[in-house]
Amino acid sequence: MRSIWNGAISFGLVSIPIKLVNATENHSIHFRQIHLADGGRIRYRKVCEVDEEEVSGGEIGKAYEDADGTMIPITDEDLAQLPLPTARTIEIVAFVPADEIDPLQMDAAYYLSANGVPAAKPYTLLREALKRSNKVAVAKYALRGRERLGMLRVVDDVIAMHGLLWPDEIRAPEGVAPDSDVTVRDAELDLADALMDTLGEVDMDSLHDDYREAVEELIAAKASGEAVQPSESKDSGGGKVIDLIAALESSVRAAKKSRGEGEGEEAAEDEGDMADVHPIKKTTSGRTAKKTTQQKSTPKSTGTKKSTASTAKKTTQKRTAAKSTSSASSSKGSSSANSAKKQTSSTGRSTSKKKTAAPRKRASA
After folding, report:
1. The whole model's pTM is what?
2. For residues 198 and 256, is the Cβ–Cβ distance under 8 A?
3. Which residues of the chain have pLDDT under 70?
4. How many whole angstroms separate alpha carbon 351 and alpha carbon 361?
5. What does the pLDDT look like over 284-315, one tens digit per residue?
6. Contact 126, 11 (CB under 8 A)
7. For residue 138, what is the enclosing H or E element?
8. All residues at 6 or more sequence positions from 3 whose CB lies less than 8 Å from its CB, including other chains
9. Which are the contacts of 80, defined by CB distance < 8 A and separation ≥ 6?
10. SS3 (DSSP) at 154
């Protein structure tokens, strides 16, 4: 990359020779002014108001216009002789936490490149010191005829410098905030937090300029003679009074849908809603499908009946066998009871006989 400024970083008594390189570039599409009648390009010519003659760039100098309209010429030599310590030096004046720099002050961005082999060591020292301290350096430097304020920080393995506006160049936001007092409810804040969480983070490298791409496509279509189809404009809803809660809820659902999240939640919510009933259209394919369904279901029902009948038959057999078993056991029980009775009666008889015989013996004695 081509350097736009050569100088040095003044770091206490340390001087680091560096080159200043633009860190950004403008990709905007620029248009030329043309004459609508014949397409001729319109150019601006620099004409002197005194003699009304066109002058070239080499004949043009600088001057300061006084309050009464008097022009005071200022040459480059006059500016070079000013006692400006930052004419070729980026002078570091302080090291502060990055959050102390107001983003409103951010201006152009540059890369600082070590100029030569001897500059590599002090350059690396300053870079590593900034990394370890988690701070940024505030510096003054002169560029394009004026002294500026800058902020040095580390980007990868390079020291970058952001041009800063002077504090008195930042306008106070007077009359910008809403005039009336607005009350924000907790429910609205909760939905706003949910929307922020759903949107989450983004890969900054994936962002691109859609408008520039559309302009390039328009130019390509015009150049090839193709007809340009007007795009459908989306209604942004600007100027309409909306329900803030409903808008936030819709935004959360849309963000989840775009990220493929919340499908299960939406299905669960839909279960509680009443389903829409639509009449079924009778078609040939529908009848065929119905017949096929009936044919498939018939054998299943027949098989079910057979299995039910066989199950009932088996149950009946089991019950019959159980009855026969119980009757057999009851008959066995009764026979055993009868035999027991017979034994008891015979035993009783023998006992009575013995008792009768005993008195007879006593009598004879």
Report:
1. 0.57
2. yes
3. 84-87, 231-242, 261-365
4. 16
5. 444 444 444 444 444 444 444 444 444 444 55
6. yes
7. strand 135-143
8. 19, 20, 21, 113
9. 87
10. strand
